[in-house]
Amino acid sequence: MILLILAAVLWLFIHLGVSGTRLRDAAVARLGEGRYMLAYSIASAVSIVLLVLAWRNADTDYLWAAPDWLRWLLFLLMLPAFVLFMASHKRNPTAVGGKGLGEEPRGIQRITRHPMLWSFAIWALVHVAGNGDSASLVFFGAFLITALAGMPSIDAKLARRHGAAWRNFSARTSILPFGAILAGRNRLALAEIGWMPPVVGLVLWLALGHFHRAIFGVPAVFLT
Fold first, then answer.
1. d(Cα 3, Cα 139) in Å, to the nearest integer?
2. Coil vs helix vs strand at 55
3. What distance separates the 2 farthest-apart alpha carbons in the chain?
4. 39-53, 61-75, 207-221 — which is least confidently predicted?
């Protein structure tokens, strides 16, 4: 468990203590964008391998057992996670270093400017709540913290880089899903999202639920 905690701390340091902070800006100034991204990619890959290996070999204690109704709720929560993930690949400035910030927010950006991170946050939360053991709490909790804390971290990085373009974009979008729409700063336009993200998300949701045991060795969270 100690190795798992250390691996989680390393993961969090790389993704929150460096990426999106002024430490990253200093590293880019010294190394250049290309060499920094290479070093960051290698460090990230190494940290996730260490995290997975430590999780698989960690001693764990069961802290709670999720009741059947909660397992079904967690299963249902994974559907919007898949849809958000699929929708995040289309015109997503917060995932591509701010490219497209000067354009009108469209599609999933009207709902949240961080659809990919919300998909990871939901996935991690589902597995923390559904597994109920100490090793999963550390492992999936690290991803949950990364996703949730990564949203304001990315916002801060883009604000430093893009100034007025970022202020205009952030004024018409929100971190919290539907926040800008409920505040009257944007509107819901489902047609802009298209049919592919919800259809592919639904197919992936059903497929992973069915094949979860075959792929990962354990049944999906909603199967008891």
1. 11
2. helix
3. 53
4. 207-221
Q: How far is CA 122 from the centre of its chain?
A: 8
Q: Which residues of 3-35 are buried (b: 16+ CB within 10 A; e: fewer)?
A: ebeebbebbbebbeebbbeeebeebeeeeeeee
Q: Are 17 and 150 in contact (CB under 8 A)?
A: no
Residue 224, pLDDT score: 41
Task: Compute the chain's Rg from CA coordinates.
Answer: 19
Q: Is the pLDDT of residue 199 over 70?
A: yes
* Cα–Cα distance measured from residue 135 to residue 19, given in angstroms and rounded to the nearest whole number: 25
Asked if the model's pLDDT at residue 157 lies above 60, the reply is yes
Q: How far apart are CA 150 and CA 15, in angstroms?
A: 8
What residue spans of the chain are helical by DSSP H? 2-12, 22-31, 33-57, 68-87, 115-131, 134-162, 164-171, 179-182, 190-193, 196-216
Q: How many residues does the chain have?
A: 224
User: Which phi and psi (to 5°) does residue 194 adopt?
Assistant: 85, 180
∠ CA 180-144-77, nearest 5°, is 65
pTM of the model: 0.90
